[in-house]
Amino acid sequence: MARRKKIYEGKAKTLYEGPEPGTIVQYFKDDATAFNAEKHDVIEGKGVLNNILSEFFMLGLGQIGVPTHFLKRLNMREQLVRSCEIVPLEVIVRNYAAGSISKRLGIDEGTQLPRPIVEYCYKDDGLGDPLVTEEHIAAFGWASQQDMDDILSLALRVNDFLSGVFLAVGIRLVDFKIEIGRVYEGDFQRLVIADEISPDSCRLWDVKTGQKLDKDVFRRDLGSLTDAYSEVARRLGVMPNNPPAPGKPTLVN
Ligand code: TMP
């Protein structure tokens, strides 16, 4: 069997050349990292859960007309996506204060923000993904003004969609990060939601108890990450009713 071509290996995913031009296979690894990979562990089952959760959110976004790079899930750990050029920004939307904004501005974690706040970080691991302003983005040509208008509108639509989906299953969407891709169609470019949407890239708190159901469980050593992600998948109906044995998640289909 021919060996497929690896395009890129990231901290949580590996990208391979897809079966057709313009496609990529995204393989979800079990690796968990935090603090710019200073902390690292392998959490059995995480990749499977993130693959199916990201599929669920990307399909839902597609259904409300938010374009994404997602094409189809291939198997437990892989999905086929459209190849795109990644805008070098991490787009963060915050509904409640937590994490870096709490530290930076001295706001207690859990404080509801007056309105969703959108922040941009420059994607550069060597620099630790620093927070940047639209002035930097324009001056260094990372995105045009039209792109920034579109990115803001996409980010807020994703926020409304995800907030509603999570609230319906008793989970508060505290904040999340998305990445944006450019796809070219003839002379035109279109922006799409790329990368992944999963508990790795969101903060998710149980509405009643405040229990954390996201990667902070790993970052802050709060217990089993697989249990937390399985709970999210179970509530969203993408896991079977019988809880899987720890570290052995099972798909519905
Ligand atoms: P922060 O509070 O650490 O800035 O994180 C904000 C959100 O972005 C949170 O949901 C976690 C997510 N995030 C990532 O997906 N990747 C990252 O590298 C970081 C630092 C945060």
From TrEMBL:
GO terms for molecular function: ATP binding; phosphoribosylaminoimidazolesuccinocarboxamide synthase activity. Its EC number is 6.3.2.6. It catalyses: 5-amino-1-(5-phospho-D-ribosyl)imidazole-4-carboxylate + L-aspartate + ATP = (2S)-2-[5-amino-1-(5-phospho-beta-D-ribosyl)imidazole-4-carboxamido]succinate + ADP + phosphate + 2 H(+). Keywords: ATP-binding, Ligase, Nucleotide-binding, Purine biosynthesis. Pathway: Purine metabolism; IMP biosynthesis via de novo pathway; 5-amino-1-(5-phospho-D-ribosyl)imidazole-4-carboxamide from 5-amino-1-(5-phospho-D-ribosyl)imidazole-4-carboxylate: step 1/2. InterPro entries: SAICAR_synt/ADE2_N, SAICAR_synt_PurC, SAICAR_synth, SAICAR_synthetase, SAICAR_synthetase_CS. It is an enzyme of class 6 (ligase). The keyword Transferase does not apply. Gene3D superfamilies: ATP-grasp fold, B domain, Phosphorylase Kinase, domain 1. Residues 6-235 form the SAICAR synthetase/ADE2 N-terminal domain. The keyword ATP-binding applies. One of its GO terms (cellular component) is cytosol. GO terms for biological process: 'de novo' IMP biosynthetic process; cobalamin biosynthetic process. It holds the Pfam family SAICAR_synt. Belongs to the SAICAR synthetase family. This is Phosphoribosylaminoimidazole-succinocarboxamide synthase. The gene is purC.
